[in-house]
Amino acid sequence: MDRTNKVRKAVIPVAGNGTRFLPATKAMPKEMLTIVDRPVVQYAVDEAIEAGIEHIVFVTSRNKSAIEDHFDDTPELISNLHRAGKTVQVSELERILPTAGSISFTRQQSPLGLGHAVWCARDLIGNEPFALLLPDMVCYGARGCMTGLMDLYSEVGGNIVAVEECDPEETSKYGIVGKGAPVSHGFAVTQMVEKPQPSQAPSNFYLNGRYILQPEIFDILANQERGAGNEIQLTDGMLRLSQAQAFHAQAYEGRTFDCGSKQGFIEANVAFALARADIGDLVYDSIKHMVLTHEPQVRAA
Ligand code: G1P
User: Fold this and answer.
1) In total, how many domains does the chain have?
2) Domain CATH for 148
3) Which atom in ligand 1 lies closest to the alpha carbon of residue 233?
4) What percent of the chain has pLDDT over 90?
5) Alpha carbon of 26 to ligand 1 centroid (Å)
6) Is any ligand 1 atom within 6 A of the Cβ of residue 196?
7) Confidence band, pLDDT 50/70/90 cuts, at residue 2
8) Is residue 300, in this structure, part of any structural domain at all?
9) pTM for the whole thing?
10) DSSP state letters, the chain
11) Measured from the CB, is residue 160 less than 6 Å from ligand 1?
């Protein structure tokens, strides 16, 4: 089989339940919750496209059809907007519409873990390296996190993960990597552990949800035993892959918001709103007022 080293495809897993956001996620996928006026999943897609990705594979599950609809055309809506002179909205809808045939969907039938979700994309990816973006982790910075990984990949190849430093007391929330020798704008990965207690963590560099992986990960995941949380963990599979192939990490220069948590989701909304030319100043004044005056006060829900 022909093998290309170019990273053309990305996997975006969107199969998770979103229990932490109930009841908002009772009838709506958590990936469609909005940061300002774009759904969370759109940020991952935009980041992938900025990095040069040509095809996106979504790994979905039941009740996720709103995501498919979001990435489909809406000719009636667009002609209504045209008629109403709403050109800004038309441009944004046109911007986010993927080229025909450049996205695919497959389903993870049972919630067996991230490693299993990635494995579900194996046929659609085939025998080539691929990017992986976890959409709950929303990256915010001057440059896309995946663009940085692509730059390092063009120099060192192999497998690359993005990391950030976390509070050393919070290692049990993430996958943690061990830091080895520096290489270009990154470092060699010596160890990978999923959700270790602080005393077991090899460092405080956590996996922020951006990866470039070689297709050999699929054969590894096919027989990966369950790990932390009794789930098939991608981190465990990557550790095995790192014993056979080059594996590097790059510290992201921006900031990643964990939008799987309420706090991270609200912080992301504030950060992206403050950065917006249309509403940034108004939001700034309003937040400043609230913080300084403790008003409006609302009863605890
Ligand atoms: C997953 C990964 C973990 C990574 C995290 C980032 O965990 O398994 O290694 O640090 O995403 O969000 P999850 O959040 O699905 O528990």
Assistant:
1) 1
2) 3.90.550.10
3) 8
4) 94
5) 22
6) no
7) very low
8) no
9) 0.96
10) -----S--EEEEE-----GGGTTTTSSS-GGGSEETTEEHHHHHHHHHHHTT--EEEEEE-TT-HHHHHHTS--HHHHHHHHHTT-HHHHHHHHHHPPPTT-EEEEE--S---HHHHHHTTHHHH-SS-EEEE-TTEEEESSS-HHHHHHHHHHHH-SEEEEEEE--GGGGGGSEEEEEEEEETTEEEEEEEEES--GGG-S-SEEEEEEEEE-THHHHHHHTPPP-GGGS--HHHHHHHHHTTS-EEEEE-SSEEEETTSHHHHHHHHHHHHHT-TTTHHHHHHHHHHHHHH--S-----
11) no
Measured from the CB, is residue 139 less than 6 Å from ligand 1? no
Residue 301 lies in a domain: no
If you measure from the C-alpha of residue 46 to the centroid of ligand 1, how many angstroms do you get, rounded to a whole number?
Answer: 21
Read off the pLDDT band of 295 (50, 70, 90).
Answer: confident
Residue 2 lies in a domain: no
Please tell me the distance between residue 174's alpha carbon and the centre of ligand 1 in angstroms.
Answer: 5
pLDDT digits (tens, 9 = 90+) for 93-108: 999 999 999 999 999 9
Residue 204 lies inside a defined structural domain of this protein: yes
- The residue range of the domain holding 244 is 9-293
Indicate which atom in ligand 1 lies nearest the CA of residue 260. Answer: 14
Say which residue, 273 or 293, is predicted with more confidence: 273
Cβ–ligand 1 contact at 209 (below 6 Å): yes
